[in-house]
Structure formats: structure tokens, C-alpha cells
Design brief:
Length: 340
């Protein structure tokens, strides 16, 4: 899942955004961490345990000095794992700064709408209004992609909730139509915090929490698929439209891509669709892309997203997995481990 932190630059310490830290704080490592800007400059900063307990870290002075900043700014942070972060810096009007060229190997500055920045945010599901306001930073970066009348919110058990967006008089984007049905479906009786992750065009994953940070129960029962020695939430592999099994090699677990059988690619995947979502047995999701090659495009690979999925799920050489798609041929690829 992609998260971001928004903070102002101008003091010695900054604090990670609460939502960002809830997801990634336990994975961060103390000591030297590396922050890279879009053109390749690196800042090395020390994470100190005594400060990180309050989500705080020293960075403001280093950034202000390096980029010659003398006002308030937004700092966007993307955690990439293993002490490595990517950053972007904006004025209060959301205009990105000009980054100095790195001394060794200058790279072209990335376009404003990065494929991974500012896609995850926190909002509120408000009652009795039954509405959700989209985060301002998300709107700035991604509103141009949205079809306001065709939005899907997908809960952790992969149930799809169709909603619509409208623009308020002060230009806020508000989700209203369809939210009442969600409230009734989950039997929500009070305001909830909603964590949203934009994973594909018009598609959001979401999780709901109380004001105390307690996640709601999305379904009363969890189906135990004992015949397969695994748990796949409420999704039964018998419902797969098409699936394939694969024993992972060492290269599969370390590579950034996974080769898919040509028959699986032809029958299970939608032609010309490149964006999919990998779903593990716990219902957690990872955006990924499909890459085709060869003269007839019959060679097919899971690419961006596979390496992260492999790492987060601790898949090793010799692990046997089954990949399947549902009968609707949605953009979900379910990945379950088969224990023999």
C-alpha cells in the first residue's frame, strides 16, 4: 500500500502523518536513513528511537539548508523499505520546487502526477450526512483521472461498493451517493475514520476505523478453507474462473517479475488490461502491472508490484502458490499459498 505524509518545513523536527505511521512505522529502522528527491539527490538522516516514539524525526533544518528554503512548504514522503524514502517538496500553493541537479548523475525531474505519490489518505465518514470528503492533496494530483459517476470502493474482503462523486460549491470533491448503502451494509452508527488508497482508475481500497483506531468487523464470519490448508477470507478457490499453480524458484522470489503461463494469460486476464491488484489470503492488496512480450504478446509477466508482494508475504524458493481470477474477471488476482 502506498502512503504519504504531509508536513510543513520550517522547524527542526517533523512528524510523520498518523495514517502513514500506522501503516509503516513498525517497518522503519533506527539509524541512518536515506531520502531521495525526484532528480537523484540524497539526504542521509538519523532516526532516533526516543523521537520516533512520537513519530518525530530531524529533517527540517537539513532540507531547508540543502534546498535553500525560507518559508513554509509541504513535504511529501514515500516509504520504499530498507531505510529508503522518496521525497517531494511543494509550496503552500502546491507548486513543486526546482530541485538542484545532483553532482554525479543528473536525472530528469519526474512529472507532477507520480504513479505512486499521494494515492493514500485519511478522511472521515460522517453521519448523518453520509458523505466522505476526498483529501485536498489527492484531488490536486488525481482528480483529472476520475470519472465522478463511476467510482468503486473496495473493502478488505473485496466487496465492491459503487459510489459517485460530486463537486461542492467550494470545489471540494465529496462522495455521497452510495455511502448510505455502505453505512447500512456495515451497520455503522457513528462517525468513522476511513483510510483510502487509490489503486487504479476510479478504484479505491478502504478500511474503516473508530476514533480510537479500532477497525470495524467487515463480515461476521471468516470461511475456513481447510481442504487447502489455508485461509482466503470469504473467497473460495472453487469460485475461480481460471487459475494456475506455480512452484516458485529462487529467481521468482528475487526477481521484479513473475512469468505466467500462456494459457493462464489468455484465459484469465483481460486483453489490453495492464493494471491488476494482487490479493493475499488475509485480504491485503498490492497494486501490480501486467507486462506482455514476444511477437504475439503471448509471453506474460507480473511486473511492478510482484517483488514487493513476494517480500511482504515472505515467499521463498519451493513455495507453491495458486493464482486465480474471479468469474467476473475483475482486476483482482488472488494469490494463495498451497501447503503440501
Amino acid at each position: 500500500m502506498t502512503c504519504f505524509g504531509f508536513e510543513t518545513v520550517g522547524q527542526e523536527f517533523l512528524r510523520f502523518d498518523e495514517t502513514f505511521f500506522d501503516y509503516w512505522g513498525q517497518h522503519m529502522e533506527m539509524g541512518t536513513n536515506y531520502f531521495r528527491d525526484p532528480v537523484g539527490n540524497y539526504l542521509m538522516l538519523e532516526f532516533e528511537e526516543s523521537f520516533m516514539q512520537n513519530r518525530s524525526f530531524r529533517i527540517a533544518r537539513e532540507i531547508s539548508n540543502f534546498y535553500n528554503l525560507d518559508d513554509l512548504y509541504w513535504l511529501g514522503i514515500l516509504y520504499c523499505g530498507h531505510c529508503y524514502f522518496q521525497i517531494r517538496i511543494f509550496s503552500l500553493a502546491m507548486k513543486e520546487i526546482e530541485y538542484p541537479a545532483p553532482r554525479l548523475l543528473p536525472n530528469p525531474q519526474q512529472p507532477l502526477s507520480s504513479s505512486r505519490f499521494f494515492t493514500c489518505f485519511k478522511s472521515e465518514l460522517l453521519l448523518p450526512q453520509t458523505c466522505i470528503k476526498l483529501e485536498y492533496a489527492f484531488v490536486i494530483f488525481w482528480a483529472h483521472e476520475l470519472d465522478y459517476d463511476n467510482i468503486q470502493l473496495i473493502d478488505p474482503r473485496q466487496k465492491k461498493h459503487d459510489v459517485r462523486i460530486h463537486k461542492s460549491v467550494n470545489a471540494d470533491l465529496i462522495i455521497e451517493k452510495g455511502v448510505l448503502e455502505m453505512v447500512q451494509y456495515f451497520n455503522v452508527k457513528e462517525n468513522k475514520i476511513i483510510h483510502m488508497s487509490y489503486v487504479d482508475r476510479n478504484t479505491f481500497l478502504f478500511r474503516l476505523f473508530s476514533s480510537d483506531g479500532i477497525e470495524i468487523n467487515y463480515a461476521p464470519e471468516v470461511v475456513n478453507i481447510s481442504n487447502h490448508d489455508t485461509h482466503l477470507g470469504d473467497y473460495d478457490p472453487a469460485d475461480f474462473y481460471y487459475s494456475m499453480a506455480k512452484c516458485l524458484s529462487e529467481n521468482d522470489t528475487k526477481s521484479s517479475s513473475l512469468y505466467l503461463e500462456s494459457e493462464f494469460a489468455a484465459k484469465a486476464l483481460v486483453r489490453n488490461r495492464t493494471r491488476y491488484i494482487l490479493v493475499n489470503s488475509e485480504g491485503d492488496c498490492w497494486p501490480c502491472t501486467i507486462r506482455r512480450s514476444g511477437r504475439t504478446n503471448k509471453e506474460c509477466y507480473l511486473s511492478c508490484g510482484w517483488k514487493e508482494f513476494c517480500k511482504e508475504n515472505k515467499l521463498k524458493e519451493g513455495t507453491i502458490i495458486r493464482l486465480g481470477v474471479d468469474k467476473e474477471q475483475s482486476n483482482f488476482i488472488y494469490v494463495m499459498e498451497i501447503k503440501v
